[in-house]
Write a structure and sequence with these properties.
6-stranded mixed β-barrel; 32% helix; 900 residues; binds ligand MGD; alpha/beta; binds molybdenum atom; binds iron/sulfur cluster
Length: 900
């Protein structure tokens, strides 16, 4: 490489999931940023998934919130800060501190989170600060605290590789924690005797990697693990010494578990006795077991009990805190853990201290020299928004989360935000469903522009480092919060000038009065200055002053908790928790709606939705439905389905699949008001929640489903984002050269050419462009394509009375390829590949744009039997590896077909 091109590399951390992969970002000098996995980061050792690898595509300024806005008008920072401070001060003066609230996010950095929590709890004097982690991790936090006395994750990622059995409960880790999935798959390739069991009502992509998939009935996890506890005890699998020395309460837990006989466990879980016993026996005979779990466990009315049912089995067998053993709550967001550490939840204080503990309250108040300190818990997310709706919260500040899309009863939440007297939103995007109904918008610096720390699922603290200037007037969240605190009169307590000062104060708080009584101890960082912070390598907590004094660096060997007991209860013993399966199933409307994630999108799509590469995988909202249900409802392949209940409705593409059990549906959580006409699934989701953790049961809503036959269906690719989309159904995604749209309508437009011109955004000035049309009104099929003077496509639209069959991948590729010759322009209008120009089919591998047809053809023609062979033949799956589970599924499909 010529010297002039030498790249400046910044070590940072991925802003998406809780795996917390290290990233090397290099400035290519031409305005582009190259992103690669950091080979030295202990979470990923150089690997990245598709979302991480596509980060470079998400960094553009277009669509960013660049300036503060008050009631829709641009203002300068000073007046924005004054407006926010005045809004809060006025409300507090009139109605007291509990009339205001902050709703924050596991996507804030630890330093942002720390000052937000300090401002609300210590200075405003209310505990009304809660976080979207309430929707995500609250049941794990509550389960950990009940069993361990603290919110401690005992293990580390190496345990996955060292285990002989990995049990994944309610976790689609192949799509949601893809780099861990890669690490596990590599470990299994080296040691095929490593067994993987997946426990999930639906056959998710993670099932392709599992030796055994148990499609349990929804919410029967407590019954399953109670049955296991009983079985383990009856088969002498308990670690008597560990139980005697380090635990309490086994008898009560067992008494509860004994109420579930083997037959009863089979009935409640809906599993056959044989498969149930396969699992129980495997667990019994395998000393090194890791049980991974995430939202299928947490997001439930029995979420905390599910967590404790799992922890009980690990405590009984003493399989905790040892290499290759332990329960492992996978965190969702990049800084879900950091938020828990600094007290982002309304029922906790900073540094893993308890709000109900007067000693802890006094300690934190003294440390902060704080004028106030709440004595009771604040409102938890769902209650908090109910209080907003009821008018009890009158001033609200939302940071780095999009509750008008992601909270249950999302329409109601959106209306509550709109009607709340004073709402501030800090975000990086100009348009979000939440920002659209707020009073004040504050532009935050985004990933790549801000500095701080995050903690991943294995308690590893890593630096996020800036490598780009913040655009417009965007500022880091910590700075915005400190400025508001100063305007409220508390400038001295918030006089930080850099994030390292906040981190050091936080580290000092973890050390204050600790002496080994609390798990979270960062006293090893007490002496850090800006340079140490800047240089810090990723490290796991605890990191104590003793370790630092002994000359150990922060980046020591993997750390685990509890192999020798030492829990954080008063008597240092763990607690078994007696749990009982929930009584009966939720009744009501005919279908049970389960919700979750798609491989290549992140949450409400504000950032991942910017990437054309990521849009290739799934470009519209959908509903997975079992073939028998589809047949009964008259839902046809690729037809549309409407889901409704009294809260709202959702319109999306049908995916008819046996992955789904009859009577159950699955819909993704991602689509928002900017990307689909009616794709906000949370508009339907019930606000039921776990009584202990307050976490909503986002996987459990009753709905009605019906076929939504439309008069016409369309697919379009357009160069410019349409100002309005005149269709009852639409979903919009990025393509390389513009936007792709799925369309549909209940009534046929009067004039198709006018419709097409409007969709393409053709103005009179562009009348000279080539506008091709083809129509067969009898069949209801119409096609339009417009080109500029150079032959570059401006828009292409296919309309039919049935779902449009054109290959999306091929059309997008053609559209993206720039100037088209006459024949290619006609082929594009026809929506059909020319001879020798094969249709790749729906894209499976986003990195190399390899489609389903290409993979199936290679598997069939070359008799490929492994994912590695497919990678060698087609490149698919050879970069980020996120699609390897789906490739395995295609190989299995071909193999099964060949055998039949
Ligand atoms: N691609 C991608 N990855 C992500 C995210 C993203 O938006 N996109 N978000 C991140 C975040 S914040 C989170 S919290 C994690 C979530 O990661 P996961 O928890 O793995 O993801 P989900 O798809 O929400 O749900 C997991 C599974 O729970 C199953 N499930 C539903 N009900 C039950 C039940 O009663 N019992 C059991 N055992 N299983 C059940 C669902 O069928 C689903 O397959 O992902 C993180 N990673
Ligand atoms: N039905 C259903 N609903 C769910 C779930 C489910 O499984 N099913 N899962 C739940 C879970 S686990 C989670 S974690 C939530 C996630 O839900 P949300 O937190 O609402 O989702 P995001 O899209 O990540 O929202 C983050 C917002 O912060 C903005 N942002 C990004 N970076 C920054 C920054 O540095 N500073 C600021 N100030 N803003 C920034 C983004 O543009 C975006 O608007 O959804 C929950 N909702
Ligand atoms: S697994 Fe993917 S999304 Fe998660 S941290 Fe790593 S690169 Fe980012
Ligand atoms: Mo989450």
């Amino acid at each position: 490489m010529p010297d002039g091109l030498a790249l400046k590399k910044t070590r940072t951390t991925c802003p998406y999931c809780g795996v917390g992969c290290g990233i090397l970002a290099s400035d290519a000098g031409d305005g582009k940023v190259l992103v690669s996995g950091d080979p030295d980061h202990p979470a990923n050792f150089g690997r990245l998934c598709g979302k991480g690898a596509a980060l470079g595509e998400t960094l553009g300024v277009e669509g960013r919130l660049l300036h503060p806005q008050v009631y829709g008008r641009r203002v300068d920072w000073d007046s924005a800060i004054a407006t926010v401070a005045e809004g809060f001060a006025r409300t507090i003066a009139a109605h007291g501190p509990d009339s205001v609230a902050f709703y924050v996010s596991g996507q804030l950095l630890t330093e942002d989170y720390y000052v937000a929590n300090k401002l609300m709890k210590g200075f405003i004097g209310s505990a009304n600060i809660d976080t979207n982690s309430r929707l995500c991790m609250a049941s794990s936090v509550a389960g950990h605290r009940r069993a361990f006395g603290a919110d401690t994750v005992p293990g580390c990622y190496e345990d996955l590789e060292e285990a002989d059995l990995v049990v994944a409960v309610g976790s689609n880790y192949a799509w949601c924690h893809p780099v861990l999935s890669q690490r596990l798959a590599e470990a299994k390739a080296k040691r095929p005797e490593l067994r993987i069991v997946l426990i999930d009502p639906r056959r998710s992509a993670s099932a392709e990697l599992a030796d055994l998939h148990l499609p349990i009935k929804p919410d029967s996890d407590v019954a399953l693990f109670n049955g296991l506890l009983r079985w383990l005890e009856e088969n002498g699998c308990g670690d008597d010494d560990f139980v005697a020395q380090h635990t309490h309460g086994l008898e009560a837990a067992l008494a509860s578990a004994r109420e579930t006989s083997l037959g009863e466990a089979a009935r409640l879980t809906g599993l056959g006795l044989a498969e149930l016993l396969d699992f129980y026996r495997l667990f019994t005979v395998t000393p090194k077991v890791v049980t991974l779990y995430s939202q299928g466990v947490n997001q439930s009315e029995s979420g905390t009990d599910k967590v404790n049912a799992i922890l009980n089995c690990h405590l009984l067998t003493g399989r905790i805190g040892k290499p290759g053993c332990g329960p492992f709550s996978l965190t969702g967001q990049p800084n879900a853990m950091g938020g828990r550490e600094v007290g982002g939840l309304a029922n906790q204080l900073a540094a893993h201290m308890d709000i109900e503990n007067p000693g802890h309250r006094a300690l934190v108040q003294g440390f902060w020299q704080a004028p106030a300190m709440p004595e009771k818990q604040g409102l938890k997310a769902v209650d908090l928004f109910e209080a907003v709706a009821a008018g009890r919260i009158k001033a609200l500040w939302i940071m780095a989360t999009n509750p008008a899309v992601s909270l249950p009863e999302a329409d109601r939440v959106r209306a509550a935000i709109r009607d709340c007297p004073f709402v501030v939103v800090s975000d990086v995007e100009q348009r979000t469903d939440t920002g659209d109904v707020a009073d004040v918008l504050l532009p935050a610096a985004a990933w790549g522009e801000k500095d701080g720390t995050v903690t991943n699922s294995e308690r590893r603290i890593s630096r996020q480092r800036a490598f780009l200037p913040a655009p417009g007037e965007a500022r880091p969240d910590w700075k915005i919060i400190c400025d508001v605190a100063a305007a409220l009169g508390w400038g001295d307590a918030f006089a930080y000038t850099a994030p390292w000062q906040i981190f050091r104060e936080y580290a000092a708080l973890t050390a204050d009065g600790n002496g080994g009584t609390r798990d979270l101890d960062l006293s090893g960082c007490l002496e850090w200055d800006g340079a140490d912070y800047e240089a810090a390598a990723p490290f796991q907590w605890p990191f104590t002053a003793g370790e630092a004094a002994a000359g150990e660096t922060e980046a020591a060997a993997p750390k685990r908790f509890f192999a020798e007991g030492g829990f954080f209860t008063e008597d240092r013993r763990a607690r078994f928790v007696a749990v009982t399966p929930p009584a009966g199933e939720i009744g009501g409307l005919p279908f049970l709606l389960n919700t979750g994630r798609v491989r290549d999108q992140w949450h409400t799509m504000t950032r991942s939705g910017r990437s054309p590469r990521l849009a290739q995988h799934v470009a519209e909202p959908y509903v997975e439905i079992h073939p028998a249900d589809a047949a009964r409802l008259g839902v046809t392949p690729a037809g549309l389905v409407e889901l409704t209940n009294h809260r709202g409705s959702y319109l999306a593409r049908a995916v008819i699949t046996e992955r789904q059990q009859p009577g159950q549906l699955f819909a993704p959580m991602h689509w928002n008001g900017q990307t689909a006409s009616a794709g906000r699934i949370d508009a339907l989701v019930a606000p039921r929640r776990d009584p202990v953790s307050g976490q909503p049961a986002l996987k459990m809503t009753r709905v009605t489903a019906m076929a939504a036959p439309l008069a016409w269906y369309g697919f379009a690719v357009v160069a410019r984002r349409p100002a309005d989309i005149p269709a009852d159904y639409w979903a919009l995604a990025r393509s390389q050269a513009g936007f792709r749209l799925e369309l549909g309508g209940r009534q046929v437009p009067a004039d198709w050419p006018t419709f097409a011109r409007r969709l393409f955004g053709l103005t009179a000035a562009e009348e000279t462009v080539e506008f091709l049309a083809y129509g067969d009104s009898d069949k209801g099929s119409h096609r339009f394509a417009a080109f500029d003077a150079e032959g570059r496509p401006l828009g292409v639209l296919y309309v039919a009375a049935e779902p449009v069959a054109a290959s999306r991948a091929w059309v997008c590729q053609q559209f993206d390829s720039g100037t088209l010759e006459c024949g290619a322009r006609r082929a594009l209008l026809a929506g059909r590949a020319c001879e020798g120009d094969a249709d790749p089919g729906p894209i499976i591998c986003s990195c190399f744009a390899v489609g389903r047809n290409q993979i199936l053809a290679a598997v069939g023609a070359q008799k490929l039997t492994s994912v590695d062979c497919v990678s060698a033949a087609t490149s698919a799956g050879s970069n980020c590896g996120s699609c390897r589970a789906e490739i395995q599924g295609l190989i299995d499909h071909v193999t099964v077909e060949a055998a039949e």
